[in-house]
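Moderator note: this is an archived Q&A kept for reference. The question asked for a predicted structure of one protein chain; the sequence and the answer are reproduced below.
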Amino acid sequence: MNDNILTDLLYKYINDPDDFTNNLNLALHYDGIEQTASAVSYYLRSSERTDEDILKYQCLLRAGILFGKQGCRNFTVKGLFQHALTIQPTRPEGYFLLSRFYEKEENYHDAYLIASIGEKVSEQNSEPLILNVEYPGFYGILFEKAVASWWVGLCHESRSLLEDLYENYDLDGIHMQAVKNNLQRLSETSKGLHLVYLPKKYRDFDWGVAAENEWFHKRVAEEVFIDNVYQKFFKVEEGDIVFDVGASVGPFTHLIKDQKPGKIYCFEPHSQLYQTLTRNVSDENVVCVNQAIGPVTGEFECAGLFNKDLLGSSERENRQTIPVIKFNDFVKQNNITQIDFLKTDCEGGEYDIFNDENMDWISENVSKIAGEWHLSSPELKIKFRKFRDTYLREFPNFEIYSVDYVDMKWAIWDDWFIDKYQEVNLYIDNREKSRDKWRVTKWPTLEFTTSIPEKGCVVDCAFCPQRTLEKSYTGQRMMTLDNFKSVVDKLPKEIRVTFAGFTEPWLNKNCTDMLLYADEKGHPISVFTTGIGMKVEDVYRLKDVPYAGNPNGGFVLHLPDQERIAKHPVTSNYIKVLEAFREVCGEIQNFYTMSMGPVLDDVKHIFPQASVPEFWSRAGNLMGEAMLKPELYNLKDQFKSIYHGESPKTCGCLEDLYHNIVLPNGDVSLCCMDYGLKHILGNIYEQSYEEVIPKTKTCFNLCRFCENGVNP
């Protein structure tokens, strides 16, 4: 029966291939029998063959859904959903699908943005669509906003949305269960303060005058006695030297005394709190200091001291002159050679500890750091930015949470983070003093240039400075498999091994064996290749490797473009390789295609479209390349360039300074922009990985010409 129906549909289509109905009927038929590739093709044709925006909108959404099910076309999925929204910006379905897409990609900030826009501008009770676009109803947008808001740290908003969904919307079974599950999780991570359940020694704790401020009393008791917030990631251990900075009336010191620390120094400048502190923690191994850590030794006017009449202890009008001592003065006066656990809750005083004067000593002598960092005023935001950009980068092992205990480490380097938050909880594990420099990033990468032919890469892309590379490189032209293995054997398992470099990786016949060896050794793998040099059997050998995702990850296949900006030799073997990729692309994790422009007609039947990147000047290298490669003059308007001026710059990429390039002779170049090889860091055949890579925040001349250059 299905064959007869399909034959009839095809007959009508052949007689009038531009008729919208003929195309849509084929799309629906192929969709119904789960032949998604054919269905997508006809949905896209349908969208191009109707003047009715509502029909275009539905076809684009359905095509995006089917591409998403294939699992290897995420860039296209996003583009289709975005295109649909430009056609029907007041319909809700596109907002739901795009927000859900971002949520599945773990891009929660954009998921929240799209759901919020959809909530504001789309029609709640719009007429139903003809096609199934998996839209559950307007509550779908609210659900996506609730999920995303939790991940971006808006926990109260997330809870309110979920409760509203539970109480006021007729949800389908899947969404109802998801709402219940999420409300349960929020309940488990947001414990209320029930002092009746506390052990007696905490119930009977003397709060003194602090009890007169209900907000302060409840918050501190909950943080210390209920949530044990300062020991979330590591504990005070027997024999530890502890600094309790901002000790208040001593709840933290009271909590840890049974853990048998060696000595505790409690700093509290408030005279009334200090009196209660001394009563609560009196012991031979506890030293109470009636001073704050400050920028000077003597007296200093500051904000943030306890006031029984103020809701927040760091309100700007709450300023007092108090006794203070500089951190390094106290350390020297008391002959302190190490601090095992540094706890801070000092309303901005933490920035008088973490400053240029103290950082070298802290880096070498403080093991565990836990505390609140405050950003509640413009002045404190400036101080936090300096702390984050200058000092925090020195500590690769840290965690950062909102005050309601949501992991926000993923957003710490974004500017909106500083604008958004008033205070955060920070934990630094500095017990490994000989730190691995590369741990400042989650994505340390070593990229391999497997060969540098004397006449340059055969693809010779106009935007690739091959002439500059040819002039600069000397030494071994082809990396041997043994040399590759010797490098991989030196690398920590966390280092991603990328096959891209300055030339096409598969110009080296051993490249597939290299990749499989690195995968076998447990490294994350990513690939950027044109496929030139591959055999069909390579495609099948490579397809099951779990390729790492972004940033700069995945398995990226660079297709030839119609303008021949990249000059792939399109041979019969190359066509077979592309056909093999087309066959298995759904099985290749994080697979996608790119091209320098519209895909070359000779291969368009295999991959009809590909994403086109934004072109930059390769940190200025294309300017010099243009003198050696005249065709670049005709393309000069197609790439951007930047010059940051004479001030020193370092790398602002997500990989920091740890996306370096290994050359066939073992030299390690700074990054993929260094085609002139002006920043050779060392030779990894002769040195260890740690010896070769630069210190974080090192400035390089190249960074002044790179779009990713930032202030150190």
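Archived answer notes: Residues 53-70 form the longest helix (18 residues).
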